[in-house]
Specification:
Two copies of one chain form a homodimer.
Chain A lengths: L1 H8 L6 H8 L3 E5 L4 E3 L7 E7 L2 E7 L2 E8 L4 E2 L2 H6 L5 E5 L3 E7 H10 L1 H26 L3 H11 L1 H6 L2 H8 L3 H9 L2
Antiparallel strand pairs in A: 1-8, 2-7, 3-6, 3-8, 4-5, 4-7
Chain A binds a DNA duplex (30 and 30 nucleotides) through helix 9.
Chain lengths: 187, 187
DNA sequence: TGGCTTTATTGACTTTGGTCAATGAAAAAC
DNA sequence: GTTTTTCATTGACCAAAGTCAATAAAGCCA
């Protein structure tokens, strides 16, 4: 839980009563390897802080898996679209290793927003931050070659390379496993 | 200004005093065609609601323009990254037609956040919404062919096709003008 | 450990988008 | 309205990623 508090502190410091209120809403949950915490068609009614483990966020189209994102300890994992809009999820969220998460359900979170202005603000900061992350990824990928995209990834997030099977990485980069294999062989 | 209020109402209704407070922070500004409202290197210290006109958001790399986004009447336009972080902008924001914008400066907006919890919430909604837009675009870019991306764009946002020169559209889709021309000829 | 399944690599070939260059059309400037 | 510039189209060719298939390597489970 300390991890979560320090995550929050990067944006804004909660006082002790706000924090206690938050802690009361967290549900600790162990997740075995290769387990889905969200399936296509389900509505995502929680956000989950990752204490341990790795998750991938992907959808299936014409029999092919398309990986949109990976999540690591210290991240929040959720289908934010499904969570916000109440739509059924197009994505699966699956653990790649044995994991531990802390779930906060939507009703509880909305109540926290209502009760504490600081929480409302924290929610804004987190949404803003998510936006910046994705927008940066879009920009950097929109006009770069797959080769450059891979090289950038290696630089910025070498953790991914060791922790995640290559065929998932390829999908995350928007290319085929064979192509990624060839890019890696190129030097 | 009614446009802005109805934009807000899609997310949350402001009461009259909140609205009056907001209106007092808006600075109306006409913008001629092909005018920059933000240049590379400048810090973006405002968000601007578009009353009339079109803007494009792009950066220049190795002599080439890369279009990241277009903005239309009813949208907010800003370099959100530069605005939030106070970094110098990598992007230009340029009007494509004679336009009218309503600027809200950062200091004023932060003060609104402080004064009204509803405003804080509105800020969250807007950030969340921006995130969903970009995240969807990223997904479609990573896993769809340029051809499909174009077809999707035609369906979802036919306004773009009429209003924006084709070479800018091509850049927005991450392809060359010649390729877009050929995709269009394909049927 | 040995056998099975999944994942990664490599090769031959195809498809698609990029490049360069020429031409035509449309829009802007005078 | 005519000139000039910008933009869109088309063709020939090239480069890069995709496809299909075979093989090798790695991981997993009994």
């Amino acid at each position: 839980m300390d991890q979560i508090r320090s995550y929050f502190n990067r944006f804004l410091a909660l006082n002790d009563s706000e924090w206690a209120d938050f802690v009361a809403c967290c549900h600790k949950e162990p997740v075995p390897k290769k387990e889905f915490i969200l399936r296509q068609g389900e509505v995502c009614d929680y956000i989950a802080f990752i204490g341990e483990g790795i998750f991938r966020f992907y959808y299936v189209q014409e029999g092919e898996e398309h990986v949109t994102a990976f999540f690591f300890p210290g991240d929040f994992v959720t289908n934010y679209r499904s969570f916000l809009r109440g739509n059924p999820s197009e994505h699966y969220i699956e653990s790649l290793k044995p994991s531990v998460i802390y779930k906060i359900y939507k009703n509880d979170l909305l109540a926290l927003y209502d009760r504490h202005k600081n929480f409302e603000r924290l929610g804004r900061f987190i949404a803003e931050n998510l936006y910046l992350t994705v927008a940066g990824r879009l920009d950097s990928f929109l006009h770069d070659s797959p080769e450059n995209r891979y090289q950038e990834l290696v630089q910025r997030n070498s953790k991914l390379l060791q922790e995640v099977p290559q065929y998932m990485l390829a999908s995350y980069l928007g290319i085929k496993p064979e192509t990624l294999s060839r890019i890696r062989a190129r030097k």
